[in-house]
Design brief:
Blueprint (H helix, E strand, L loop, with lengths): L1 H21 L5 H13 L1 H11 L6 H12 L24 H11 L4 E8 L3 H14 L3 E6 L6 H15 L3 E7 L4 H4 L2 H9 L2 E5 L22 E4 L3 E5 L17 E2 L2 E5 L2 H14 L7 H4 L10 E8 L7 H12 L3 E5 L7 H12 L3 E7 L5 H8 L2 H7 L2 E5 L3 E2 L3 E4 L3 E5 L5 H6 L2 E7 L1 H16 L1 E4 L1 H5 L3 H12 L5
Parallel strand pairs: 2-3, 3-4, 7-13, 10-11, 11-12
Antiparallel strand pairs: 1-8, 1-9, 2-5, 5-6, 6-8, 9-16, 10-14, 12-17, 14-15, 15-16
Helix pairs in contact: 1-2, 1-3, 2-3, 4-10, 5-12, 6-7, 7-9, 12-13, 14-19
Length: about 475
Amino acid sequence: MTAFLILLHVAAQIVVIIRALLRPHREPASRMAWVMVVLLAPVVGILAYILFGEVDIGRRRTERIRAAIASLPALPDVDRAAAGNLQPQPSERYDHLWRVGRSISGFEPIGGNSGRLLADSNAAIDALVADIDDARDHVHVIFYIWLPDGNGCKVAAALARAAARGVTCRAMVDDLGSRRMVKSEHWQAMAEAGVKVARALPIGSLFAHPFKGRIDLRNHRKIAVIDNWITYCGSQNCADPEFRVKPRFAPWVDAVMRFEGPIARQNQLLFAGDWLGHVDDDLAAILDEPLEAPEPGFSAQVIGTGPTMRYSAMPEMFEALMYSARETMVITTPYFVPDESLLSALCGAARRGVETLLILPAKNDSWIVAAAARSYYSEMLAAGVRIFEFTGGLLHTKSITLDGAITLIGSANIDRRSFQLNYENNVLLHDPALTAAMRARQQEYLDRSLPVTAAEVAAWSTRRRLLNNTIAMFGPVL
């Protein structure tokens, strides 16, 4: 009997290892990491691979989401007299960035937009509530985390008020990230007030879920669209900055931009793909509504990524930005676990003389990710990347500014979760004024950060370096 169990266990190891080696779109480092996990910790490794080894949300969900996205219409036409304002600003220097973005979401860059960077997390919620209160036709929101706290309840109450006066409101949350809100009285109160509510990627039974797809593939997006004209994009969830579910890391420091113009229609299509992938509903009237004639404004493009979309899309966008930098590039992200090609792009920017600044939180809510990130410090510093650790809370802003002209802002981190596992949304924009505002915000972060020096990193103990490097070795499975 013992021999049979040993044979069965070895056979299971071999099957899992072969499956890991044969999975498509897997980097050699990722394959090797999973093989090591299965060999070094057989029982735990096999279980971990079953739960987390494959990027799969389930065949039926995948088919439904892809069918919903395929059914979405193109952006409607606008009056020819104003069509010129929809054209992106001509710039051969950045045309390739728009092409990368178009290859991901299928959206063309679109002109005629205005925008502003909101002062802080509370100001972003207050602006959103004001826009919901002023909505005339519809409000659509998606949040990864929506908490039943002060800010969360403000938005819930605003949606209930809007629905009560006849505005069509749709609210979607990730079923894992927003489980506290879904289980709260506020979720039910919104539904009773007439808000259409839905849960993205519902978990259901924890025992049955592994057979339907990975439980940790989540909808990480943060989208708000009001009346097809106003939209929000940034890193902030629907919660207080004190983030009371993890108070010892607070405050959460986020950045959110409020846009007006045709760019809202691209976020609308992103929302519609998520909504129709889970809910039987008719959005035709909203999606086919003619575009308003925009005033002259900057060019922007929505970039949506996820596990049912093109593989490696988000790292390609990050790398394209890094290779495009000529003078200065500032990056903020809370979670930094790059793959080899992205790390090379970042270091390459610094080596060719680009002022390259990377701002990470000094105290991270994930010590594993923090340790992995620090394993790259020595190489980046040697290349000339300047690294800073933010001390004023958990820096949660995901942003890149480039040469005083280009900004990428949104929900995607520079880690494998955002690269392959989560649904993310970002906006790429070309506007010196708004980029200057984002750069000024990044400077505020720098003023509250401590520089990391090569001497400091060299002085780390052998034990610390061993821990960081060992964890980073498993970066492909984090």
